[in-house]
Design a protein that fits this description.
CATH superfamily: Alpha/Beta hydrolase fold, catalytic domain
InterPro entries: AB_hydrolase_1 (IPR000073), AB_hydrolase_fold (IPR029058), AB_hydrolase_sf (IPR050266)
Distance between the termini: 34 Å
Strand content: 15-25%
Radius of gyration: 17 Å
Number of domains: 1
GO molecular function: hydrolase activity
Protein name: Alpha/beta fold hydrolase
Shape: globular
Number of strands: 8
Domain AB hydrolase-1: 22-242
Oligomer: single chain
Keywords: Hydrolase
């Protein structure tokens, strides 16, 4: 399904539905389509908003997690959002954590799935064979429990991205920034409710990462999805949405 991308004040974003704001933050290689099932499930009850993070547009020297968190802050202020529920996958979760740490006054709750911020086993800091389609296909398949989730369309998209010199330089800079920016000493400051929805077979941010987030975040709950890798909302969308429904009901009743 195609969603309309709005452009305003230098921001590009998708916005569907009415109600409380569900702000979705995509990962480093994540496309907006990764969230399609979440949008379809929740747009009747929530205002589902996905800003396009300017991963490829930042000056190289400021390409990092903190810059993306500042971008999210500017976007939230521009849209005059309050009591936002932030949902982030992978790098998007890390950006959400930095944003919430700096500006908790805008956020009602946080949902993390496969989030970086503590540890991640990413592309290993380089793309030694980025011109080799099969190598990239293998790397994309590694994201999921079931390799069939890595459709040809998805692999083609990643292959095209990593073979664009401007983009790949920024991807590597962003990945290094995420690895350097470890949040273990900051997580105790986050007092608002946090739900962790994790693939039990995630090889990029493995289950022990979810356990550590759960231990370090004072007001967190951890939910597991079996037979699922690093992007639960793509690989097991029905179960992911079911858990998210439960989480949102709990948040609304608090």
């Amino acid at each position: 399904m195609e969603f309309t991308i709005k452009e305003e004040n230098g921001f590009k974003y998708i916005e569907e539905g009415e109600g409380e704001v569900l702000l979705l933050l995509h990962g480093l290689m994540g496309a907006l389509s990764n969230w399609e099932e979440v949008i379809l499930e929740f747009k009747d009850r929530y205002r589902v908003v996905i800003p396009m993070l300017p991963i490829y547009d930042l000056p190289l020297l400021t390409t990092g997690v903190k810059s993306l968190a500042k971008f999210v802050h500017k976007f939230v202020k521009f849209k005059k959002f309050q009591n936002v529920i932030v949902l982030g996958n992978s790098l998007g979760g890390h950006v959400g954590l930095v944003f919430v740490t700096s500006h908790p006054e805008f956020v009602k709750a946080l949902v993390l799935t496969g989030s970086s911020g503590l540890y991640e086993n990413s592309f290993g800091g380089s793309f030694p064979k980025r011109e080799n389609y099969d190598f990239i296909k293998e790397k994309v398949e590694f994201t999921f429990y079931d390799p069939a989730t890595a459709t040809k369309e998805l692999v083609d998209e990643v292959f095209e991205t990593v073979n664009d010199r401007n983009k790949v330089i920024r991807i590597l800079a962003m990945a290094k920034s995420a690895i350097r920016h470890n949040m273990s000493k900051d997580l105790h400051k986050i007092k608002l409710p946090v739900a962790l929805i994790w693939g039990r077979n995630d090889r990029i941010t493995p289950p022990e990462v979810a356990d550590e987030f759960h231990n370090l975040l004072p007001n967190s709950e951890l939910y597991w999805i079996d037979k699922c890798g690093h992007a639960p909302m793509m690989e097991q969308p029905a179960e992911f949405n079911q858990i998210l429904n439960k989480v949102l009901e709990k948040i609304d009743n608090q």
